[in-house]
Amino acid sequence: MAAAETREHGRRVVDLSHVVRSGMITYPGLPGPEIVDHLSRADSRARYGPGTEFQIGRITMVANTGTYLDTPFHRYADGHDLATFPLSQVVDVDGVVVDASDVDRVAIDESTFGGTDVAGRAVLIRTGWSRFWGTTRYTDGDHPFLTRDAVTWLVQRRPAVVGIDSVNIDDMSDHSRPAHTGLLAAGIPIVEHMCGLEHLPPDGFRLHAAPVAIAGMGTFPVRVYAMVDQGGSRGSRSRQP
After folding, report:
1. Residue 147 contacts residue 218 (beta carbons within 8 Å)
2. Biggest CA-to-CA distance, the chain
């Protein structure tokens, strides 16, 4: 799915989120959302004046739907949840794209990051996997993921947030989930199922991924977008020697 782009005050706004649709499957084994009318426009007409109508929708879904943010509470009972997580880590954050789309294996290791400066930044890992969104290939398990050494490398350098355009930042066959375990233990949130990273420059953009403030939940869909500075070029940062 291509990212939607608009312009605001001379800057490009790039939408990095999948559209949530009724019945769609985000992750294998989890149900798709159900989107229905709680109050239809036709039924609302009896409540309001002539020519006035409204729609009130209802959605039933698991938290891991579409493009979503994982906070530490997703993995740790004593971690920050959606209501207490610091917005400063996911709002107006200096971003960098790490291009892993040319890696000839699904395991993304430390070498992929090269000498990229990630401290305090939004690190977005472009794998190209989002091109399979909505197909069985996307969720078949043979997807790009971070290795343990890559996670250790990131934790040591303290990025503000890490995002990826794959079905899981972890190898789904590794039930210890080292990426979620390591990053969330360090207070580094994760955004999964991103899209449109190919529309971003290597840097020169600000990421926004604010969640709804829900107490007692660690994960929820977010409308992730980037504000690209005027003059920012398209492309992504390739591995450095």
Report:
1. no
2. 68
The residue among 35, 21, 92, 70 whose CA lies nearest residue 185 is: 70
Task: Compute CA distances 179 → 56, 96, 142, 191, whole Å.
Answer: 39, 19, 16, 12
Report yes or no on whether pTM surpasses 0.90: yes
Helix (H) or strand (E) segment spanning residue 149: helix 148-157
* Residue whose tokens read 């109050």: 39
pLDDT tens for each residue of 199-223 = 999 999 999 999 999 999 999 999 9
Residues 48/41, Cβ–Cβ less than 8 Å: no
Pick 5-33+62-228's CATH classification: 3.40.50.300, 3.50.30.50, 3.40.50.10490, 3.30.460.10.
3.50.30.50
Cα separation, 25 vs 43, whole angstroms: 30
Please give the pLDDT value at position 238.
45
Instruction: Tell me what pLDDT residue 141 has.
Output: 85
Domain boundaries, the chain: 5-33+62-228
- How far is it, in rounded angstroms, from Cα 239 to Cα 187? 26
